Known about the structure:
Elements lengths: L1 E2 L7 H4 L8 E4 L10 H5 L3 E3 L6 H16 L2 H9 L15 E5 L3 H12 L3 E6 L3 E4 L3 E5 L3 H4 L5 E4 L13 H5 L6 E4 L8 H9 L5 E4 L19 E3 L10 H18 L7 E2 L4 E2 L10
Parallel strand pairs: 1-2, 2-3, 4-5, 4-8, 5-7, 8-9, 9-10, 10-11
Antiparallel strand pairs: 6-7, 12-13
Amino acid sequence: MLVWDFLSDALRPAWPSADSLRWVHTASAGVDRVAFPELLASDVVLTNSRGVFDVPMAEYVLGLVTAFAKDLPGTLRRQDQRQWEHRETERIGGRTAVVVGSGPIGRAIGRMLTAAGLRVQLTGRIEQTGDPEFDTVHSAAALRGLLPGADYLVLAAPLTDQTRGLIDAAALAAMKPTARLINVSRGPLVVTEDLVAALRDGRLAGAALDVFETEPLPDSSPLWDSPGAIVSPHMSGDVLGWRDELAALFADNLDRYRSGRPLRNVVDKTRGYVTTPSNLGSSA
């Protein structure tokens, strides 16, 4: 079963009739929409599209960091009003970015931000020392201690029971009022009401959100016009040609399945993400 539309919930109601299903592949990096309890408890193999979105999402995050530092939204607003107002902007070199998620997407974001001059602190499920790229990968438990020093908090972690509601009022209160939040993972990692309140009260300088608890984002959502908010329609990884890359990855996996070779991107259903290398020598 290829789940091409990652927002589709069609698989679960059809599950009772799926008596011969052996493998589900989703055309997304996140698997939260298909990882329902019945599938997780079964022996059906679940694979995802890990690897397709890493660099595009990293580029998007760097663009958002630059937009915040150089106040590009403010420039565009003034242009719309034909308003000439000189301002001073911020540097991004030397600033600190805390990236939540040590998978391929989080690492790609960390590499790109490092190349732009930011100091990156990467967090994952457990602490890892001696990392060849980031020296130390901090544990999830260490995140609260990192928040006070973050100029940018970037969320790139999968949605699991452990990450749902991760950024709540307490987490936001630990951050500097000059800090910005960027979420390109899944909306439910952030408690929306707490974020809206922090932006409204000036306790957070900005938030760039590409993902939301409800998508499309309702017209009535206060996020549309919250101070310092940048809203985009779940597009951070979608670059020209991305559908072809998704199709090629699935086609390669289908060849593997039919020939009895190991599949790429097998999801660890106890954790909700891939825990093994995804390449397996494929050029797809």
